[in-house]
Amino acid sequence: MACGLPRGGLWPGQVLSLLPRCRFPPSGSEVVCAVSGGPDSLALLALAVAAGCRAEAVHVDHGLRPSSAAEAEVVQEAAERLGSAFRRVSVRVPPGPDLEARARRARYGALPRGSLVGHTADDQAETVLLNLMRGAGLEGLAAMRPSGAGLGSVGRPLLALRRSETEAVVAALGLRVVRDESNSDLRFRRNRTRHQLLPLLADISGRDPVPVLVRTARILGQDSEVLAALAGDLDPTDVRALRAAPRPLANRALRTWLRQGPDRHPPSSAELERVWAVVSGQAKACELAGGCRVSRSKGRLTLSPPLLPPLPV
Question: Is the pLDDT of residue 2 over 70?
Fold first, then answer.
């Protein structure tokens, strides 16, 4: 493997100046970087190598676009330039609704646990707004964390960087970039949030809303961690313990237990109320979205069928 320096042997100042704001593991650590070929993921790979990590670029090919082979070549070229290992993984996206969610599940399923992804502060701000529109609670508004949890969890070392800064990194290194045309398709809610809602918020507030939303997510994330620790001591299947606990803690324990569907969204407020009818003895069982059922027997709750593992956002 090459030394990991770009042509000329020196890292540009645009790269080195960003490293203190990144959250990479110690120099010498082996990391897997998910690299699509876009500027964020290419900057992730470059910064990982500049931080002294022994990086492997993994490009997941969904086979959804005719240009997928060319995109893999862009990533391989960048990996060779930067002195990183390279691996291409082909996955099959199963049929069904919500193509983005299905492709994301296939992609994360192909990545080793603890892989790094190139989400930025701009992605974080978009996620806060999307979760707010979905009606999420504290945990959802805390949005993405630097390190995820659960099966397939990923690390996000670039959450403190802006999208403009990742663009500057790849420009400074002269790397070819893949431009995904679907990122401009306003049929997708995230794209409308990016291209329409955030600029409108900036116009109304007279300031850049991204740092404000990121700060809000960080504060709420800290609060969420404290509540999660307290709720973690509560057995969500023990009816007596649930009824004796403060309702917010009991609700949090239940939400963690009842996360639904492929993307493991928490249950809705209406679903949670149905579960509480089972907890209180008003009902013996209730149905939840996704074909799940909560039933009560001998003071214990049972969930069937078992839920799928969580998927990082």
Answer: no
